């Protein structure tokens, strides 16, 4: 059974930092691309950052480029999101995602989400 468990959310101050972590289990972590998405109230879920299997390539939303850093540890089966220079507009529920796309299949798994609130 695939499980993705996020942690590290909470209240952050504008200009401050938070670090999210996602612990994976129940599947072969190293063959899945990993990502973080977020959903603010009344808005659609949006991509925040993704990282490839070995961690060699990362991709960020323009809104977080230069402030957030995604990383992964395949030995520990974890993916993290370091969030610096937080802004109120970063307030959202953040979701961990695991995805493996094959020619005839698309395996896509989600965590339950962790709330991040940026406010003074």
List the helices and strands and how they pair.
Elements: E1 3-7, E2 10-12, E3 18-25, E4 33-39, E5 46-51, E6 58-60, E7 68-73, E8 78-83, E9 92-102, E10 105-110, E11 114-118
Parallel strand pairs: 2-11
Antiparallel strand pairs: 1-3, 3-8, 4-5, 4-9, 5-6, 7-8, 9-10, 9-11
Task: Briefly summarize what is shown.
The chain is mostly beta strands.
- Biggest sheet, open or closed, and with what strands and sense? 7 strands, mixed
Principal-axes shape call:
globular
Q: How many helical stretches?
A: 0
Number of strands: 11
User: What's the rounded overall pLDDT mean?
Assistant: 95
Task: List the helices and strands in order.
Answer: EEEEEEEEEEE
**Could you give the distance between the termini?**
40 Å
Features:
single chain; 120 residues; seven-stranded mixed sheet; four-stranded antiparallel sheet; globular
Task: Give a verbal description of the structure.
Strands 2, 4, 5, 6, 9, 10 and 11 form a 7-stranded mixed sheet that branches. A 4-stranded antiparallel sheet has the order 1-3-8-7, with no helix packed on it. The chain starts with a strand and ends with a strand. The radius of gyration is 14 Å and the shape is globular. By secondary structure, it is mainly β. The model has no long low-confidence stretch (mean pLDDT 95). It is built from no helices and 11 strands.
């Amino acid at each position: 059974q695939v499980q993705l468990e996020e942690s590290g959310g909470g209240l952050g101050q504008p200009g401050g930092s938070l670090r999210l972590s996602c612990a994976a289990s129940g599947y072969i972590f190293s063959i899945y691309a990993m990502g973080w998405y977020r959903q603010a109230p009344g808005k659609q879920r949006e991509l925040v950052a993704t990282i490839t299997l070995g961690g060699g390539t990362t991709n960020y939303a323009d809104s977080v480029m230069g402030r957030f850093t995604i990383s992964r540890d395949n030995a520990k089966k974890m993916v993290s999101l370091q969030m610096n220079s937080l802004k109120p507009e970063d307030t959202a529920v953040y979701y961990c995602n695991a995805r493996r796309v094959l020619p005839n299949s698309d395996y896509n798994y989600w965590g339950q989400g962790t709330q991040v609130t940026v406010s003074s």
